[in-house]
Amino acid sequence: MSPSRTQAERDAVTVEIMFALVSGAFVGVVGFGVLGGAALWGPVPAPWRGPWLAVSTAVGGVLFCVRVVQVLRRLPGRPGAGPSPGDVVWLQPSRPGRTDSDS
Questions:
Q1: Cβ atoms of 44 and 52 closer than 8 Å
Q2: What global pTM score does this model have?
Q3: What is the dihedral of CA 57, 63, 66, 68, to 10 degrees?
Q4: For residues 35 and 99, what is the distance between their CA atoms, to the nearest angstrom?
Q5: Of 18, 53, 84, 91, which residue is the least packed, with the fewest Cβ within 10 Å?
Q6: Alpha-carbon distances, residue 51 vs 4, 24, 46 (angstroms)
Q7: CA atoms within 13 A on the CB side of 67
Q8: 57: number of Cβ within 10 Å
Q9: Taking the domains of the chain in order of start, what are their residue ranges?
Q10: How far is CA 5 from CA 39, 68, 83, in A?
Q11: What is the pLDDT of residue 6?
């Protein structure tokens, strides 16, 4: 960490990382449960259960990684770096006090 970050900024990053991991684990478990549930409790033939569970595990892992990356890419950059592409930026009129459509 850079020494220029405040304690509040470091805490915010820690919270975002934990949110990414927890929400990623949830999405991965749900993805595994949807596919793996068919192999464990559904009408999947016995010879297919092993490969089906392996594919379910891989899908759950991929969903976990995708969610973690998706959340962590939202993290704000360094102060003064400007908005990231996903940020909502409210545009101000070029002439204060004017509400014309061309301002």
A1: yes
A2: 0.67
A3: -90
A4: 54
A5: 91
A6: 50, 23, 10
A7: 20
A8: 15
A9: 1-103
A10: 49, 23, 18
A11: 87
Helix %, strand %, coil % of the chain (to 5): 60, 0, 40
Contact (CB, 8 A) for 72 and 21: no
Strand, helix or coil for residue 103: coil
Residue type at 41 in one-letter notation: W
Instruction: Evaluate the CA torsion angle 31, 35, 41, 46 in order and state its sign.
Output: negative
Tell me the pLDDT of the chain (103 aa) as tens digits.
446 878 888 898 899 999 999 999 999 999 999 999 888 888 888 888 899 999 999 999 999 999 999 999 987 665 555 556 666 656 655 666 666 565 5
